[in-house]
Amino acid sequence: MTCHCIDSYFWVRRVPKKNLAKIGRAQLLRSARQAMKNAYAPYSNFKVGAAILTSAGDVFLGCNVENASYGMTNCAERTAIFAAVAKQGPGLEILAVAVANEQGVPCSPCGACRQVIYEFGPDAIVFFQGKKGSQQASITDLLPDGFRLK
Ligand code: THU
């Protein structure tokens, strides 16, 4: 599959719609690991990558981007989602999210990222490293009663 470098902070890989069903967990996790290599994590040394699969059949990548003012840090998941909106616009629909970290330790999306995933993917499935290895959960399991304005 061809990779197109679109920008310095994300790249997107087109997936023909007919192949959507074949885009499995392993492939999305592989993409997340690829994204992880771009992480800017000099403070925590904890590099994270995320890949989201959209209903349009695109895969967007994100990594964590830290800051000397720690609270300004952006997680990998939100980086991927914001890149997707910047590229595709506000109609983004997330089907699945994969998260990988360099240390191979348990790492599920933080609370803030769960809420952001829920915004664009109320039925999304999330693949991540759990306590017992690779795990998957629906976003509503990870975030019961997610907030909605309407
Ligand atoms: N981090 C992520 O990017 N995603 C997660 O799911 C958990 C935490 C980042 C934020 C920070 O740069 C580093 O991991 C340590 O908390």
| Share in β-strands | 25-35%
CATH class: Alpha Beta
CATH architecture: 3-Layer(aba) Sandwich
Q: Specify the CATH homologous superfamily.
A: Cytidine Deaminase, domain 2
Number of helices: 4
Q: How are the strands of the largest sheet arranged?
A: 1-2-4-3-5-6-7
Please count the beta strands (DSSP E, at least 2 residues each): 7
Would you tell me which CATH topology applies? Answer: Cytidine Deaminase, domain 2
> What is the count of distinct domains?
1
What ions, cofactors and ligands are bound? Answer: tetrahydrodeoxyuridine
The Rg value, from CA coordinates, equals: 14 Å
Topology pattern, helix = H, strand = E: EEHEEHEHEEH
Helicity range: 25-40%
Shape assignment? globular
Q: First CA to last CA: what distance?
A: 39 Å
Structural class: alpha+beta
Largest sheet, described in full? 7 strands, mixed
